[in-house]
Amino acid sequence: MIPLLDTNVLIRFFTFDKDKKYKKLYRFFESLERGDIQVELKLIVLFQVIYVLKSFYKVPREQISDGLIDLLKYKGIRIKEKKIVQRTLEIWHQKQVDIVDCYLIACLEKDSRNLLYSYDRNFDKFNINRKEP
Fold first, then answer.
1. Quick one: 129 and 67 in the same domain?
2. How sure is the predictor about 46, in pLDDT bands with cuts at 50, 70 and 90?
3. How much is the average pLDDT of 80-95?
């Protein structure tokens, strides 16, 4: 089993924590970038990182999405549905849409038979078949 990566590690990395306690953190991420070590990033952790950086640290969405898109290029980062997650971050970077909605859009845009049951009319701006239940 590949080790999992927790939210607090990513938050420390993205907020450039210079505390001596976290000095090894940057070597850890360099090893991830090279692929010397492997970790799995769960989607729920990714969404929590976005929430914490945006709400608590007030990091702009463009900076968060750019940082996460770069992180997904690290050879040692494994995440299921990587292309969908990358597309989610691209949509979120470009549009003023909630990250979860961006994920749903990214999941559905590749499928010509896509259908989303939702009352949210904002989905109508995208190439998504939306239907109210």
1. no
2. very high
3. 95
Task: Check whether residue 16 and residue 37 sit in a common domain.
Answer: yes
Residues 71 and 105 in one domain: no
Question: What is the tally of structural domains in the chain?
Answer: 2
| Start-to-end Cα distance in the chain | 40
Q: How far is CA 32 from CA 6, 20, 35, 130, in A?
A: 14, 20, 5, 39
Q: Are 38 and 71 in contact (CB under 8 A)?
A: no
| Contact yes or no for 100/118 (Cβ under 8 A) | no
Q: pTM of the entire structure? A: 0.89
Q: pLDDT class for 85, splitting at 50, 70, 90?
A: very high
Enclosing domain of residue 90: 83-133
